[in-house]
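Reading a protein record of the kind used here takes only a little practice. The record below shows the convention in full.

——
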Amino acid sequence: MRFTNPILLLDTASMAFAFDAVISKGLWIGTDSTNPGASLEEIFAHRRNHVTAVSTILQMYSLNSDFIPWKRTPQNGRHSYGSFKFMLENSPIFQKVETFTAQMFVSGDLYELQTAIRQEYKHQDRELVAFNLASSIPTKSRNLVGTHLVLFSLVEIFKPRTQEAVHVRLIELPLGLRVDKGDVRLYNQDAKLTALTFEIKTKWVKEHAHEIASSYLGLPITVKEFVQIFTTSAEDENEDEDEDDLS
């Protein structure tokens, strides 16, 4: 059988996204049992290697959508994040197992923001999620003034202790930021936190290991590399692409 994944071949260049910028972080929770000497096909064929399999697949979607936070500016993310999310939601490799939403009031205080997230977000990773969302908010912007709508996103791989399948969670928190004389401030606002949880289709991936591996031209991506790939770079590292991290 010839493996065909329409999501990997999808032309998403025309997909629009209604944010001024996207700031992302990659997160990993759990224990990685991957055999470091496994071949690309073995990464998909054996369940013990599926943390690396998921990391590799997400990197594949990252490249195909041009959502590459470590290399691109947050401005680029506003155009490409929607394509990445679409690929994940429509992938034959994952199935969505949960959609979580919570409304919250956000003040200008980052500590209060963390507290609000911990109170509303009931999952076991709430401390990590609260800290990483709050710490993603920049304090400085070189050239911009005015108000900007920024999506803060966490792309998380985790392996629940009670389950064998590796999961992916996409956590989103859009926030309005005000920039005045280079200082970035979070102002009082209502916000919506969303978390989409996906589970790798273990049996399907094992059965199609050869076809998936044949469609991927690179090397396996470790979960540590995944964290780096999905974390937005510091502003000065992207100066050649954009003059400002929120432009």
Summary: The mean pLDDT is 86. The domain at 21-235 is CATH 3.40.198 (Delta-endotoxin CytB). The longest strand covers residues 167-180.
